[in-house]
Amino acid sequence: MTQQPPHTFIFDVYGTLFDVDSVADKCNKYFPEKGEKISKTWREKQLEYANLRQIMGNYEDFYSITKDALHFAVKKYAEELNEEVEKELLENYLYLSPYPEAKAVLNQLGDKNLAVFSNGSHDMLDPLIKESILADSFSKIISADEVQQFKPALDAYAYVSKILEVKPKDVLFMSSNGWDISGAKNYGFQTAWINRQNLPTEELKLEPDIIYKDLTGILEWK
Amino acid sequence: MTQQPPHTFIFDVYGTLFDVDSVADKCNKYFPEKGEKISKTWREKQLEYANLRQIMGNYEDFYSITKDALHFAVKKYAEELNEEVEKELLENYLYLSPYPEAKAVLNQLGDKNLAVFSNGSHDMLDPLIKESILADSFSKIISADEVQQFKPALDAYAYVSKILEVKPKDVLFMSSNGWDISGAKNYGFQTAWINRQNLPTEELKLEPDIIYKDLTGILEWK
Predict the structure, then answer these.
(1) What CATH number matches the domain at B8-19+96-221, 3.40.50.2300, 3.40.50.1000, 1.10.10.920, 3.30.470.20?
(2) Cross-chain residue pair A57–B154, CB shorter than 8 Å
(3) Domain ranges of chain B
């Protein structure tokens, strides 16, 4: 696979370790006719707003962005959002389910240093991970909020390297998001794209080192 | 409207002055079953790739990005793209129609300094504008490619200010893209959002100064 296998495995969170589909289910509960559309726009705007704020130099934490994106999505489809529904929809991000294979895969990587790195802020990440069956798997939970630079900015990945005291080449970085894999590759990490949706590779001239359909594939690297 | 009315009017191009819907029509011609989906993904990826490259510090011109985005969209829907079809789809961007009201509105703004500023590269913008009925309307055609910084980066809008030798407060900036309006506002331009699709305002805490459904509204500022 590589001359010197990576000793540090860094995982993205949303869509990579934890399944975000339940967010859509909850949108369907409150907006039965438009739940699919609202949840799709919500996710798109969440990512877009993080990108735009990164570009504009206008940082806000990911929780605020997630709330803003929800407001846009609900307005777009001419629905109302009361405080209670807003709270319940946002709280969904604290109670996501890990993907079925996640725990067993992490358990088999016991001699690697495992960490997570997400654009999510600690008020989102910490309750989610610490209350999940993955709680004991990671040496560190690292948020882009600590450096106020969102992935895929070079400064975001560089921050993680610094915190974990690792060279980029000694890291295997996992994400289900093509853009995140491109950013990690751009920085110099080795990358495994967890391509759960069977999408084509992003056309950014930063191909992943390897592609798997779920986390099981990374056991090749242990 | 304002104590000191702006003397320089800057226009975005795609979706603001020129109608991009014909791109979707052409996609339907070549991919009759999947044209809508392919053209939608194409446009989304075009914007996303510009954002991602801006964030990653990994600039490529907008023509290359447009081509890359097309490749992704076609692969996503499991279609084939031969050279001839690729060429014809991309050439579409050189032959867009101006919106019906554009020419008359620009004609009535004769005492203002009118310019365009687009993320598009000159190989896309110049043939489009110079062969259109809007050819004589503008003092300058400015591309983000000249400074290799895409909107909504501050450096992009700052470049236009410098080239046109204007202070931000003396500019009225028009775009149909909410993110572009947010970026222009973030820099300090006065902004008129041409909200052709009747969308909610972007939740970026950078509201436009005024919203119109098409370009006609800006005649209030003459």
Answers:
(1) 3.40.50.1000
(2) yes
(3) 8-19+96-221, 22-94
Give the tens place of pLDDT for each residue, B55-85: 999 999 999 999 999 999 999 998 899 999 9
What are A91-145's pLDDT values in tens digits?
999 999 999 999 999 999 989 999 999 999 999 999 999 999 999 999 999 999 9
Any idea what DSSP says for residue A201?
A: P
Neighbours of A157 (CB within 10 A): 26
User: Min CA distance, B168 vs chain A (Å)?
Assistant: 16
Is B22-94 a CATH 1.10.150.240 domain?
yes
8 Å CB contact of A58 and B203: no
User: SS3 of B184, please?
Assistant: helix
b/e burial code for range A181-219 (CB count within 10 A of at least 16 → b): bbbbbbbbbbbbbbbeeeeebbbbebebbbbbebbebbe
State the helix-helix crossing angle for B35-56 and A35-56, rounded to 10 degrees.
Answer: 30
Q: Which of A46, A90, A203 to mutate to test the interface with B (most CBs of B within 10 A)?
A: A203
CA dihedral B148, B151, B152, B156 (to 10 degrees): 50
This model of the complex carries an ipTM of 0.96
Q: Whose CA is closest to B222, among B114, B148, B117? A: B114
